[in-house]
Each structure stands twice: as C-alpha cells, then as structure tokens.
Q: What sequence folds into this?
C-alpha cells in the first residue's frame, strides 16, 4: 500500500496540469457542483430533445448558439485547449484568444460548431459530489493547485481497487499465495489504471465501485446469496452507475453469479434475489436518470454528443467488423498500457509485445486450466492437475465464470461504443481490471509447477516494477520534462 | 520442505534470486540509459539519473518548492525500498497455508 501511494504521488506530479484526458471538463464539473450546487448540462441545440439538430451531411441545422442551452467552459481554460474536445484552432499563447476565446469554430464544409463547451456533463454525479467539498475548501487555491489536490484525491480510489483485488482473490482462492500476491501487484502496477488513479476523472470511481461489485459477487458465490448480500450488491451497482454509466457491464456477471449459485432450476430463489438486487440499484439511480431523461430526452445523451462532435467523431464500423479489426484491437492494446489519455505517448511495439507475450501465456494457461477442470469435473479423487495445480471447487468454477463474463461483456461494450463513436477507448474496460488480473494470473499459475512458484511470483512482481520504471523513464518523463522544455 | 537442508537451500536460492533482481533494478536506475527521441530523426541517449533529475526540476510550481522536493524524495525512497521488500516477500518459499480451497476466508 505504501509503495502504491508513493508511486501515485509521483504520477500525480509527473503529468502537467490539466493534461489528463478531459481533465479540464471534469475539473469544471466539480467546480460547478461546488460553487453553483448543481450539475452542469451538455451544451445542446434546443430542438426535439436533441433530435433533428443535424442535416443529412452531419451539419448543424441551428447555428444560432445563443438559443442553445447548457454549460460552456470558462474562458480561463482556453490556455489548455490542447487538452479539450474540441476548442480548435488551438493557439494557447495567442493573447487575443486567451483574453476572449472564440465560442464557435468553422469546420469548412461542415459549417459552424460550438467550441469550448462542457462536454463531460453527461457523466453521473457521484464522483463530482465526492470531490465538491474539497473543491469548496480549496477555492483560495489557483485552478492548477486545486487540480493537483483533486488528482491526489483519486489515489484512495486506486488504493481501494488494489485492496479489492486482494480481497476478491482471497474469496475465491483463500490459500493461494501466488494469486494473493501477484493479482494485487498486477493491478497496482497496471500503468493506465494507475494513471486514472492520479487524474481528475470519474473513471477511477467507476472502476472502484465495479471492483466492489465483483468482490461482493465472489463473497456471495462463496457464502451464498442471502437477501442482505443481494442488497449490498445492488447498492454497489447503484454507486457504480452513479459514478460512471458504463458500469452497466456489471449486470451480466451479477445475473450469472446469482443464478448459478442458487441453481438455474431454482427459479424462485434467483428471481427473488435478482429482484432485490435490481430494486436497490434501481432506487439509487432513479433520481439521476429521471433528471437525465427530463434534460436530454434519452438515457445516454448520445444524440447530443453526436451533435456536438459531428465533424470528427463518426461511427467506427460494425460490431463484427470492429471485433475482427486488427487495427482496432491493437489500438485498444496500446491504450491499455500506454498512450496516457490524449494518445501523446505511444509505447514501442517491442515493449507492447514484451507485455503481450506473458499475458498470452496466461490466457493459454487459463484455457488449459478450464479444459482440464471441465474434463475432470465428474471424476472425484482427481483434485490435482498435470503440473500440480489444484482443480477448482464449485464456488471457484462459478467465480471464474463470473469473472470471465465480466471481462467479455466489458470488451464487447467498448466495441459496441466504437460502432457509434470512433473515439472509443480502452479505459472503458478498466472496471474489470481485477477480473482480468485474476484470470490471467490463474492461467500463469497453472503453467508454473508449485516448486517454482516463489520464483514465478518474484519474476512477475519484478517484471511489473521494471515495466513501470521503463515506461516512465523511457517515455513519460522525457515526453513531459525533456522534450517539452 | 520439512528437511533442514532443503530449507537452507530454499533460503539460499531466495537470497540469490533477490540479490540478482535487486542488482538488476538498482543497476538500471544508477547506470542505465535510454534513447530519448527529440524528433523522429534526432535521438539522444540520456542516463536514467539525468532523466529523473529532469523530472525533479520540472516538479509543479505549487505549494513550496521544498515541500515538493520532499514529496519527490520520500516517494522515491519508499518506492525503492518497498519494491525490494515486495520482491523479497514474493520469494518466500513457505508453502501455502494448510487451508482447504473450499474453506471460507475470514
């Protein structure tokens, strides 16, 4: 924990102010909550709940922006226009724009579009409500200093994720030193989750609450889903959805865990427990979604985002097309380990492959584990696999299936988002980092004979450490502190 | 693992592997170097300590400079010592607890 906090303290200060992904917009959201006691809304055209704002070519049908509703970013933040979607032409040193930045930009054939708007306002409010008291207390600070304070306040979320990785592993594999040590290490040293845990953004809160859902599911699978546990799962899901909308991906693993633990044929048991879970989550998120529907006329504001980002954020392709698009998959892999938000810091393909190879080995080991466990499931007395690994019991099997469904659902959600907006990103599947870590490292453990596991553990931990040292020494520090100066 | 000579051998290999990994890490941090790309055609090799010194010089201008330097030095110190301790713990040759897999964790 001390190592994680120390690492995060350095991560907070290594990146220049407001250089995190959409950090200006998230910061402004916190300020609006803190000072005006309301949530901001997307800048949107006033017609038909966002419908019919674009013509057949994607041009605006209404460019009288004075008739539009919603929030814009304060003039001050034009100096950070390179970190804002999309306040271009971006000339942060031009005194003319610094003193009175433009609020509409001409995109040529696409015509006029608003610029410098609050485009993060579609996010649910929980993270921003949590940060607002600190922002209020720090009103005397400069925006930059306050931003560093808010960045530091993301660290506890990251710490919670690492702890939940440990506790989830302990629920499923209580006496497995290999997993108990390597899973939290994997999560703590995952460079992009660490990055989220050092920036002003709601992703980190979403990741933390989905991690809590996965922990509660593992606990329920182990001990049984009584109604109290289901209520806790529902509450955690509600919190997750109030932190980040993509937490919806937690619903399939919840359903699977409850149904398989109760027994698929025991319909009354799993239906009643599922109802309690859904009811608690539903009651928690209801006020937000009522507000949301009344404001935007839909539950995702995608229509309004499509309108604002029409000149450059087009659909990325079909679901099947993106699933098998090598470029799409490679870009998600690059974003999983590098890129750092604005895709400015790309890791070399040699580094990306050096990371990929052990993970591919882990996934292969997981496949082997699953095949052998499946084939031996009906043969009592064969508890030990070929390399000395222990076969899963029923709880472990359900738990692993639940984690697998979480990972698959999460990736499919990223692909599905890509069908609507080309600007889909790997960070949308980070909420399942704990599930992914458990599955991959279980696969890795499967391939390592028990006698060699201490060395395997040490190699994995030191490999993770080296990866971080190299990424920061070779890429991040030179990019921000040598090349930019 | 009950035999005394086996325990000694396990501890010896633990020390050797830990020393090797620690030397690798500390050696890279002290004497390593990296190629920094100034442009796509212009690359410069810089030592690892000089890269981290550039980071320290570029610490944000918030709070007092001394405080930021203290945060930087303390964090780096905790990281180095903590990482070496982590690797040492990972190499612990003790067998898994004798708790059956199906037993409930606390």
A:
């Amino acid at each position: 924990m001390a190592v994680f906090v120390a690492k995060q303290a350095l991560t907070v200060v290594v990146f220049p102010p407001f250089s995190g992904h959409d950090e200006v917009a998230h910061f402004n959201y916190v300020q609006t909550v803190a000072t005006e006691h309301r949530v901001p809304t997307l800048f949107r055209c006033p017609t038909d709940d966002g419908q019919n704002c674009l013509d057949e070519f994607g041009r605006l049908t209404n460019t009288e922006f004075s008739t539009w509703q919603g929030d814009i970013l304060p003039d001050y933040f034009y100096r950070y226009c390179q970190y804002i979607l999309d306040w271009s032409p971006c000339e942060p040193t031009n005194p003319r724009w610094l003193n009175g930045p433009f609020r509409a930009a001409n995109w040529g054939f696409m015509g006029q579009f608003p610029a410098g708007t609050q485009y993060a306002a579609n996010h649910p409010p929980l993270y921003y409500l949590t940060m607002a008291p600190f922002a209020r207390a720090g009103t005397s600070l400069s925006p930059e200093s306050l931003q560093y304070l808010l960045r530091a306040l993301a660290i506890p979320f990251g710490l919670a994720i690492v702890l939940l990785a440990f506790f989830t592993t302990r629920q499923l594999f209580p006496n497995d030193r290999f997993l108990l040590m390597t899973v939290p290490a994997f999560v703590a040293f995952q460079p992009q989750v660490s990055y989220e845990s050092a920036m002003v953004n709601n992703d980190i809160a979403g990741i933390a609450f989905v991690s809590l859902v996965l922990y509660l599911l593992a606990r329920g699978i182990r001990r049984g889903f009584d109604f109290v546990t289901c209520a806790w799962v529902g509450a955690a899901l509600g919190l997750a959805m109030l932190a980040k909308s993509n937490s919806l991906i937690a619903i399939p693993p919840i359903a699977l865990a409850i149904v398989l633990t109760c027994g698929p044929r025991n319909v009354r048991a799993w239906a009643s427990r599922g109802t309690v879970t859904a009811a608690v989550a539903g009651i928690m998120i209801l006020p937000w979604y009522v507000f949301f529907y009344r404001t935007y006329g839909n539950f995702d504001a995608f229509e309004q985002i499509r309108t604002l980002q029409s000149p450059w954020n087009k659909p990325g392709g079909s679901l099947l097309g993106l699933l098998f698009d090598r470029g799409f998959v490679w870009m998600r892999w690059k974003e999983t380990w590098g890129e750092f938000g604005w895709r400015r810091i790309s890791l070399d393909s040699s580094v990306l492959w050096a990371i990929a190879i052990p993970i591919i080995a882990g996934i292969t080991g997981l496949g082997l584990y699953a095949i052998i466990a499946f084939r031996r499931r009906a043969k009592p007395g064969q508890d030990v696999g070929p390399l000395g690994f222990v076969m899963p019991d029923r709880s472990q099997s359900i738990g692993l299936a639940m984690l697998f469904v979480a990972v698959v659902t999460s990736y499919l959600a990223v692909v599905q988002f890509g069908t609507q907006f080309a600007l889909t990103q790997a960070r949308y599947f980070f909420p399942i980092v704990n599930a992914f870590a458990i599955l991959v490292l279980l696969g890795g453990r499967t391939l390592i004979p028990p006698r060699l596991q201490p060395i395997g553990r040490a190699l994995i931990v030191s490999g993770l450490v080296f990866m971080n040292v190299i990424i920061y020494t070779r890429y991040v520090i030179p990019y921000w502190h040598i090349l930019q100066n | 693992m009950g035999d005394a000579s086996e325990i000694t051998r396990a501890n010896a290999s633990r020390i050797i592997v830990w020393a090797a990994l620690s030397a690798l890490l500390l050696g890279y941090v002290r004497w390593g170097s990296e190629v920094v790309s100034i442009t796509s055609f212009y690359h410069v090799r810089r030592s690892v300590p000089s890269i981290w010194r550039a980071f320290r010089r570029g610490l944000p201008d918030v709070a007092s400079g001394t405080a930021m330097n203290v945060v930087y030095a303390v964090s780096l110190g905790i990281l180095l010592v903590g990482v070496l301790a982590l690797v040492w713990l990972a190499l612990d040759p003790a067998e898994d607890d004798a708790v059956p897999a199906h037993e409930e964790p606390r």
Chain B has a mean pLDDT of 83. The longest strand of chain B covers residues 33-37.
